[in-house]
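quick q for whoever's on today - can somebody do inverse folding on this one?? i tried earlier but teh output was garbage lol. tokens:
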């Protein structure tokens, strides 16, 4: 049909890199809507009678990637809902895609309905990420913020997600952000890029 495609920015980077923090600030200040794939999965998991709860839980608690069709449908539904109810068309998609299967499912399910304009890559050393996540674990209630699962999340990130970032780098879509700086310094940079 003749509906304008969604405008999409993928926000990628390791666990604790600040994706959620920065996307929240960007959506508060600019006209982009924040969709965290992890938040969508965690919300689906707690829905009464959700048939997907067990599979989502099992993967999140093991630091593994939830089957791609589940995640991509949640993202697509969320974009369509926000367009229908609030007229939103610009989305920061945080923490997705993180595997080859995610990219394939996105192409199949969303495809030309969205233009992926750029990819933010938040780069940060693992020791800093670990200390951020352990600090957050005191209050987050996230089952995956324990040291054992954090290690598994890093393994998954290195093995499955880094190659996706490298693929987008070859396409020239990636803006690398040094994420090992204050929240304010990172924000200055991402905001100016998004305003370009
Ligand atoms: N903090 C943030 N920025 C800081 C800064 N500049 N200086 C100092 N501290 C900073 O930040 C993490 C913590 O650090 C916070 O306490 C923050 O205050 C502080 P946050 O903004 O939350 O970082 P973020 O990158 O969003 O970290 P998150 O833990 O959410 O990243 P993950 O990618 O690990 O988590 P996500 O929710 O995306 O995924 C969780 C799991 O869901 C995955 O492991 C996987 O099992 C599953 N999943 C899928 O299967 N598929 C998907 O597509 C997505 C998720
Ligand atoms: Mg997050």
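ok took a stab at it. sequence:
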């Amino acid at each position: 049909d003749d509906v304008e495609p969604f405008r999409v920015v993928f926000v990628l980077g390791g666990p604790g890199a600040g994706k959620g923090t920065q996307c929240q600030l960007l959506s508060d200040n600019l006209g982009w809507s924040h969709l965290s794939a992890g938040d969508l999965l965690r919300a689906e998991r707690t829905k009464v009678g959700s048939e997907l709860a067990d599979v989502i839980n099992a993967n999140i608690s093991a630091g593994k990637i939830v089957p791609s069709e589940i995640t991509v449908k949640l993202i697509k539904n969320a974009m369509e809902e926000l367009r229908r109810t609030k007229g939103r068309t610009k989305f920061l998609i945080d923490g997705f895609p993180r595997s080859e299967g995610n990219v394939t499912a996105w192409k199949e399910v969303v495809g030309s309905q969205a233009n992926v304009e750029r990819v933010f890559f938040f780069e940060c050393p693992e020791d800093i990420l670990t200390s951020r996540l352990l600090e957050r674990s005191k209050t987050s209630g996230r089952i995956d913020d324990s040291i054992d699962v954090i290690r598994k999340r890093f393994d998954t990130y290195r093995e499955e997600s880094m190659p996706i970032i490298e693929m987008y780098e070859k396409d020239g879509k990636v803006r690398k952000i040094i994420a090992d700086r204050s929240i304010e310094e990172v924000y200055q940079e991402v905001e100016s890029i998004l305003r370009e």
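fwiw Residues 6-195 form a domain with the Rossmann fold fold (CATH 3.40.50.300). also The first helix runs from residue 19 to 29. so keep that in mind when u check it
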